[in-house]
C-alpha cells in the first residue's frame, strides 16, 4: 500500500499524494486551523482556568524557521538521542507492527533507528512542511502527512503502533486545567482513538525539571534588575500527572519512566541559541517578548556562579519522560479479582529461610 520514498523530491510528492489519501484514511473537520487558533485565543482568557497554555501558531512559526536554517542538523543532537531511546522501547516489544504512525516526526528521528522487520509501514506527521521535506531516508516504506498533533486526520482503529518524541509537550496541560474546560487539549484521547485494539503508544516528552538551571538564573536576574520576573521557558508536565492523563485517555498497562540528559555549553547564550535552533523557544501565551541586556548579563553571571563547572562550561538538564500505554483488548492480561489471593505478603519474608523440619 505504501512505497518507499526515494530521491530528493520524495517528501514533496507524498505531501501532494496525501490529498487523495485523506478520502480513505482521514476524518473531516468542521473547524479550520485558523479558526481554531482564534477560538483558542478567546478561551485562553476565560475566567476559571487558562485551558490553552501554548500559542500553536507561534510554535508552527518557530518550527518552520528552525527547519529553514542552513545548519539545522547541528541542533538535532537531543532529538536524535531521544529518538533512538524511543526506538529501543519499540524493540522491547516482541511483535511486528504492520502500520505505525510517528507524531511530530521532525526529520524522522525515530524512523532512522527502526527496521522494516519490526515496522512494516510508517506514516510521518509534522506541523512543519519544511521538516517533512527534510526527512531522512529510512529502509521502512514511509508516507509524509502534514498535520497538527491536536487534529490527527485518521480514522479510528487504524494503526498498530503510535510513536512520538518530544512533540506532544506543547499541547499538554495539567489534568486540573483540562477538567475545568469543555475541551480537553490532551492529545492522548486522539492517539488512543487512532490505535487498533491491543495497539501500543510509545512516546517521550520533556518533563517538569527540564532546564531548571536556565529558569532559576533568569528569574533571579529579573528579580534583581527589574523587580519581578516572567516565564521565559515553556512550562512542562510533571511525571505525577502523566499517568493520570494516560489513564483518563483510556490506556491500560501503563509504564512511565524518567531519564535525564545533561548537555554542557560554553554559556547561557549558547543554551538559548540552541533552544532557538531546535525550534523550542518559549511559545506560552504569557511569554515575555524580550529580555533586557542587563538582565541577560546578570543571568549569565548567576548561571556560571551557581552551576558552572571548573572548565568554565555550564550544564543544561533535560528531563525526559518516557511512556508506554496499550489500547484495551480482551486478550490482554487483567488483574485478579480483589481478595482472590491465596498467599499473604507477610510470607514473603519467609522465602529462603529453612523450615522447622530442616532446623531439627
From TrEMBL:
<dbReference type="InterPro" id="IPR013216">
    <property type="entry name" value="Methyltransf_11"/>
</dbReference>
<comment type="similarity">
    <text>Belongs to the methyltransferase superfamily.</text>
</comment>
<keyword id="KW-0496">Mitochondrion</keyword>
<dbReference type="GO" id="GO:0032259">
    <property type="term" value="P:methylation"/>
</dbReference>
<dbReference type="Pfam" id="PF08241">
    <property type="entry name" value="Methyltransf_11"/>
</dbReference>
<dbReference type="GO" id="GO:0008757">
    <property type="term" value="F:S-adenosylmethionine-dependent methyltransferase activity"/>
</dbReference>
<dbReference type="GO" id="GO:0005739">
    <property type="term" value="C:mitochondrion"/>
</dbReference>
<dbReference type="InterPro" id="IPR029063">
    <property type="entry name" value="SAM-dependent_MTases_sf"/>
</dbReference>
<keyword id="KW-0808">Transferase</keyword>
<feature type="domain" description="Methyltransferase type 11">
    <location>
        <begin position="101"/>
        <end position="202"/>
    </location>
</feature>
<dbReference type="InterPro" id="IPR050602">
    <property type="entry name" value="Malonyl-ACP_OMT"/>
</dbReference>
<feature type="region of interest" description="Disordered">
    <location>
        <begin position="333"/>
        <end position="360"/>
    </location>
</feature>
<dbReference type="GO" id="GO:0032981">
    <property type="term" value="P:mitochondrial respiratory chain complex I assembly"/>
</dbReference>
<dbReference type="GO" id="GO:0016491">
    <property type="term" value="F:oxidoreductase activity"/>
</dbReference>
<keyword id="KW-0809">Transit peptide</keyword>
<protein>
    <recommendedName>
        <fullName>Arginine-hydroxylase NDUFAF5, mitochondrial</fullName>
    </recommendedName>
</protein>
<keyword id="KW-0489">Methyltransferase</keyword>
<keyword id="KW-0560">Oxidoreductase</keyword>
Amino acid at each position: 500500500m505504501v512505497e518507499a520514498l526515494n530521491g530528493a523530491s520524495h517528501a514533496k510528492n507524498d505531501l501532494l499524494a496525501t490529498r487523495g489519501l485523506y478520502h480513505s484514511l482521514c476524518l473531516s473537520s468542521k473547524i479550520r486551523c485558523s479558526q481554531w487558533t482564534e477560538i483558542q485565543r478567546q478561551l485562553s482568557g476565560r475566567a476559571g482556568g487558562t485551558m490553552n497554555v501554548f500559542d500553536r501558531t507561534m510554535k508552527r512559526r518557530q518550527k518552520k524557521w528552525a527547519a529553514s536554517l542552513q545548519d539545522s542538523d547541528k541542533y538535532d543532537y537531543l532529538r536524535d538521542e531521544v529518538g533512538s531511546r524511543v526506538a529501543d522501547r519499540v524493540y522491547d516489544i516482541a511483535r511486528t507492527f504492520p502500520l505505525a504512525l510517528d507524531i511530530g516526526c521532525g526529520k524522522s528521528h525515530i524512523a532512522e533507528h527502526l527496521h522494516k522487520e519490526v515496522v512494516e509501514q510508517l506514516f510521518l506527521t509534522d506541523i512543519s512542511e519544511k521538516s517533512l521535506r527534510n526527512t531522512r531516508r529510512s529502509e521502512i516504506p514511509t508516507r509524509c502527512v502534514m498535520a497538527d498533533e491536536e487534529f490527527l486526520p485518521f480514522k479510528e482503529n487504524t494503526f498498530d503502533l503510535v510513536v512520538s518524541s518530544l512533540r506532544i509537550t506543547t499541547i499538554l496541560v495539567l489534568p486540573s486545567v483540562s477538567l475545568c474546560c469543555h475541551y480537553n487539549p490532551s492529545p492522548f484521547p486522539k492517539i488512543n482513538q487512532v490505535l487498533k485494539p491491543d495497539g501500543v503508544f510509545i512516546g517521550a516528552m520533556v518533563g517538569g525539571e527540564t532546564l531548571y538551571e536556565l529558569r532559576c538564573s533568569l528569574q533571579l536576574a529579573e528579580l534583581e534588575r527589574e523587580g519581578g520576573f516572567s516565564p521565559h521557558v515553556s512550562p512542562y508536565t510533571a511525571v505525577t500527572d502523566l499517568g493520570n492523563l494516560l489513564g483518563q485517555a483510556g490506556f491500560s498497562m501503563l509504564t512511565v519512566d524518567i531519564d535525564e540528559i545533561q548537555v554542557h555549553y560554553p554559556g547561557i547564550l549558547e543554551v538559548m541559541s540552541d533552544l532557538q535552533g531546535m525550534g523550542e523557544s518559549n511559545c506560552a501565551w504569557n511569554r515575555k517578548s524580550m529580555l533586557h541586556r542587563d538582565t541577560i548579563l546578570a543571568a549569565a553571571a548567576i548561571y556560571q556562579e551557581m552551576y558552572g563547572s571548573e572548565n568554565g562550561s555550564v550544564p543544561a538538564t533535560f528531563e525526559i519522560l518516557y511512556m508506554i500505554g496499550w489500547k484495551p483488548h480482551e486478550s490482554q492480561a487483567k488483574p485478579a479479582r480483589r481478595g482472590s489471593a491465596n498467599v499473604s505478603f507477610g510470607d514473603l519474608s519467609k522465602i529462603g529461610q529453612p523450615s522447622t523440619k530442616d532446623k531439627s
